[in-house]
Amino acid sequence: MPTINDIASRLGVSKSTVSKALNHADDISETLRKKVVETAVEIGYEKNRVRKNEAQKLCILIENMDYKNPTGFGHDLVLGFEQMAIPAGWEVDKVAITTEYQRQTSYDTFMLGNHYSGCFILGFSLKEPWMEDLKTSRTPAVLYDNYIPQNPLVAYVGVDSREGYHMAVARLKSLGHTRIGYLGGGMESFISKERYLAYLHAMEKYGLKTDAGLTGYSYHISECVRQYLPVLLQNHATAILCEHDQLANAVMIHCTELGRRVPEDISIIGFDDAAFSAYTTPPLTTIRQDQNALGRCGYYALTSLLNQTHIGSLLLRAEFVERSSIAKAKSE
Questions:
Q1: How far apart are CA 132 and CA 288, in angstroms?
Q2: Of these four, 88, 228, 233, 248, which has the most CB atoms within 10 Å of its CB?
């Protein structure tokens, strides 16, 4: 394995200078420290991040997700992770990451430079620069609702979308629905693709037909609703599955604007069971994600990776929560 001596030799500096740079000594310039860390990553040096009298450190990297507000989707994900990690002796930093920062600093450089042993990643899209870094990274990471194939040091936690949509389609079919549509986010998202495929699988499982006139997806909620909802209604959809609850609520509002009653004229089902879902008009039927449990699973998966147990995917069971946004299919 590469050593501090190898880094010093590569840069033409002393071993003590490299050691100081890796340990954030005050008499080392930020420029030199950055060069030392980048060289360490380049040659595959794996520093013992736990120094004497220093807490073991993990981080939660967050982008495009509200985690500070108690009603925000990321709040309980973070809380669940911390409830497991902190009692176990870990120091946990919550770090908001921008795409621009990812372009300037590689993932491994950031992790090594800040002495993090591993991380839990929330809210990243497939196009983020660090998603590319994670394909070959040597620093353990667990992704929520994202997947990196082939790297044994990266795991994925989430809820079983296929199981969730199977329950939703089965319930709708029992209510007489056969024209069941789907609206989702942009296909640049891993979870958007997964839920769309889960919808198709559930429809096939229950012998129901799908076609282009029954599906639509866009990254922007307003665009998805205004562009595709009228098409689904014109194609006689009697029920619509939505990728997430915010989209489902927007669909219900727009249905009302179009003169369609929910659930008398059309049934709507969301995904997540967000905090507001029980208070929409009507209260939203949805597939529940236990965010706190997902955060705890994120910690479990990460400690497994740190102990050389190479978990690939860890999926929680889905839970179908029926409220007032679905009813029997309207007779023609």
A1: 30
A2: 248
Q: Whole-angstrom Cα distance, residue 100 to residue 121?
A: 17
Q: How are beta strands 141-144 and 239-242 bridged, if at all?
A: unpaired
pLDDT tens-digit map of 133-190: 999 999 999 999 999 998 999 999 999 999 999 999 999 999 999 999 999 988 878 9
d(CA 30, CA 28): 7
- Nearest CA-CA partner of 184 in 270, 257, 286: 270
Taking the model in full, what pTM does it have?
A: 0.84
Distance CA 7, CA 49 (A): 16
| Residue keyed to tokens 């060289």 | 39
Give 150's DSSP letter. S
For 67-110, the DSSP string reads -SSTTSTTHHHHHHHHHHHTTTTEEEEEEE--HHHHHHS-HHHH
- 273 φψ region: left (φ > 0), alpha (ψ -120 to 50), beta (else): left
How deeply is 264 buried, as exposed, middle or buried, from its count of CB atoms within 10 A (0-12, 13-18, 19+)? exposed
Cα 325 from Cα 234, distance rounded (Å): 20
